[in-house]
Design goal:
The chain is α+β, with helices and mostly antiparallel strands. The protein has 17 helices and eight strands. A hairpin with a 5-residue loop joins strand 4 and strand 5. The radius of gyration is 27 Å and the shape is elongated.
Length: 363
């Protein structure tokens, strides 16, 4: 694992490697040159004791990395070893001899070597196939084949259109929930619908994030659209769980619930009672119509310019949203850190949020 780069999970290692080979990088330019030259290549991103131990022959270089140099060195038999930051070429024409007992699903010699080296040395390894004209990345025990940039961009645009529709629906059910919270008419079903839609948006966003990452400089506009569409979703999902999680919410219990939502399979996610069960609100479909009351995290955090610490203290002090909405100026000033100006701002902010929520529901 590339712990020295601040990444440790297989997914993080692969993401960091995709950044290294994204369009616009010198490494990607070099790999494209290898493909256009109709040759193959084996590139190890990093040099450690394991790589040195399984290397035979070749020669040391220690020269600045460049796309033309990679292209020329790839013409020779053997692997090219660069440093993990792809700033320097360390070795060239190296014969790599990884442990043959390491399991691999590949059939081609170059790909089999790349996968075994990646697993044995714990370093990302890239294999360029001359016959298949593909670039395969092995990192963190995972395998990823680079796709054509135009194809990725086309799929990313379609996914963004889907994300926009799902975000619109999420905003609708979230606005309805806010109005019901103000009126104290929330049921388990209302909460589950928002949690469900929020998780669906998150999963689509994860797919797009991977595509945008792989597009590199070619995906800058798509990245801006993506960031706009997912803005606030993760925070709102956490606040929803803090509002409705059965029992006293803690950082650990909220994190566990969020992880469980993310781990739920697609079939379970489509069942509202299964989604509600993650929050401890339902054990059967019959429980979906059970009334529930929010603690107030979602709406209180929407008060303009209200510090998060004050929002948390308000909820902890009053316990429920209805008590916060009914609190007088004097009551609000009883919260640590809330003086008269801030109490007035909280009262006015919550009043506007309540009025807007009701109007959006009935108009």
């Amino acid at each position: 694992m590339d712990q020295h780069l601040g990444v440790s999970t297989p997914e993080e290692v692969m993401r960091a490697t995709l950044v290294s080979v994204a369009p616009g990088t010198e490494l990607r330019d070099g790999l494209d040159r290898v493909l256009r030259g109709n040759t193959g290549a084996l590139v190890v991103l990093g040099f450690n004791q394991t790589v040195e131990a399984i290397s035979s022959g070749g020669f040391a270089l220690d020269v600045e990395f460049s796309a033309p140099r990679l292209r020329e060195l790839a013409k020779m038999d053997g692997a090219v070893v660069v440093d993990r930051q792809t700033n320097r070429i360390v070795r060239a024409a190296v014969q790599l001899m990884p442990d043959s007992s390491i399991q691999t699903t590949e059939s081609g010699t170059r790909h089999r070597t790349a996968e075994r080296v990646a697993k044995q040395a714990g370093l990302p390894t890239i294999s360029v196939s001359q016959s298949m004209r593909t670039v395969a990345i092995y990192a963190g025990g995972l395998r990823h084949v680079l796709e054509d940039t135009d194809e990725i961009a086309s799929r990313a645009k379609q996914a963004l259109a889907t994300l926009e529709r799902y975000r619109d629906r999420l905003d609708e059910v979230s606005a309805t929930l806010s109005a019901l919270e103000v009126e104290d008419l929330v049921t388990v079903r209302d909460v589950a619908q928002v949690a469900q839609r929020s998780e669906m948006v998150g999963r689509i966003a994860d797919e797009i994030d991977s595509m945008v990452l792989e597009l590199g400089t070619e995906g800058r506009l798509l990245h801006l659209q993506y960031e706009e569409l997912i803005s606030g979703v993760a925070l709102d999902r956490r606040l929803l769980v803090e509002d409705y999680l059965a029992g006293a919410p803690s950082a650990e219990s909220v994190g566990t619930a969020l992880t469980s939502l993310r781990a739920a399979d697609q079939a379970a996610l489509l069942e509202l009672d299964a989604t509600a069960a993650v929050l401890g609100l339902a054990s059967s479909p019959a429980d979906l119509d059970t009334p529930v009351s929010p603690r107030g995290y979602r709406l209180v955090h929407r008060v303009p310019r209200l510090p998060d610490i004050i929002a948390t203290r308000l909820v902890e002090h009053f316990g429920t949203l209805q008590r916060i909405l009914a609190a007088s100026m004097e009551d609000l000033q009883g919260v640590e850190g809330v003086g008269e100006p801030l109490a007035r701002a909280i009262r006015e902010g919550l009043s506007r949020i309540a009025e807007t929520s009701i109007l959006e529901r009935y108009v």
